[in-house]
Amino acid sequence: MARTFFVGGNFKANGSIKSIQGILDNLNGAKLDPNTEVVIAPPSIFLLTTAEKASNGVKVSAQNVFHKPDGAWTGELTTKMLVEHGIEWVILGHSERRTLFHETSELVADKTKAALDAGLNVILCIGETLEERDAGKTLDVCCSQLKAVADKIQDWSKVVIAYEPVWAIGTGKVATTEQAQEAHEGIRQWLSSSVSADVAAATRILYGGSVTEKNCKDLATQPDIDGFLVGGASLKPAFVDIINSKL
Ligand code: G3P
């Protein structure tokens, strides 16, 4: 089954009115591969203006969402608010949220379920630390993060998985194409044996961690790498080259 190549830009807590306008001008005016799905995730305060101004097929994602209905959750956004404002995607389970904000795999699973129930698409992030990789636990960690979600959802058609080894995020230390392919293949095998062969064949698995315009083309040749979730480089004009890495 052909999986549409997907490139996400996670701006994290970066950007100003001016710089985000600059990113949008660049994307809106660029020649983007029509066969690649592009989704950008600005900080929440910029979601609405980004959604209003993004064109050229670029969709917008939140970087997080709360899993409960509207209520007394100071500082949070609910799924209903995103949907009402035409935001179609949300990133969940990013390692920065797991680590800095103590989000457990259980909570990530609850958020994923709530987002899907509300009709949102989810970029579900998983990945191991360097210590876990060195201990040979890469797939155990990734699959247990996935299992928490698999225990709570049935329909994977609106889920894109982002494999982001923690040691490669923002470090300039990209996984080798072999390391990335090996992890992606293992994740797909787990999906096949633990969810279904159809879900394994259809679900996009993105690589994230120090992706740049220089290393994207090699990574994109791998059979189980269906795109990227890009942090730092998504803030730069060369993000267009990453979007076009299959051209
Ligand atoms: O979600 C994207 C990510 O964590 C990778 O960040 O800056 O290493 O591309 P970066």
UniProtKB/TrEMBL annotation:
Q: Which GO terms describe its molecular function?
A: triose-phosphate isomerase activity
GO cellular component terms, alphabetically, are: cytosol
Pfam families xref list: TIM
PROSITE patterns named among the record's database cross-references: TIM_1, TIM_2
In terms of HAMAP family, this protein maps to: TIM_B
What InterPro entries does UniProt report for this protein, alphabetically?
A: Aldolase_TIM, TIM_sf, TrioseP_Isoase_bac/euk, Triosephosphate_isomerase, Triosephosphate_isomerase_AS
- Tell me its EC number(s), please: 5.3.1.1
Q: Which residues form a coiled coil?
A: none
User: What CDD domains does the annotation carry?
Assistant: TIM
Q: Does the keyword Isomerase apply?
A: yes
In Gene Ontology terms, what is a biological process of this protein? gluconeogenesis
Which pathway does this chain act in? Answer: Carbohydrate biosynthesis; gluconeogenesis; Carbohydrate degradation; glycolysis; D-glyceraldehyde 3-phosphate from glycerone phosphate: step 1/1
Please identify the protein, giving its name as recorded: Triosephosphate isomerase
Which top EC class is given? isomerase
Please give the Gene3D superfamilies that the UniProt record associates with this protein.
Aldolase class I
Q: Which family does it belong to?
A: Belongs to the triosephosphate isomerase family.
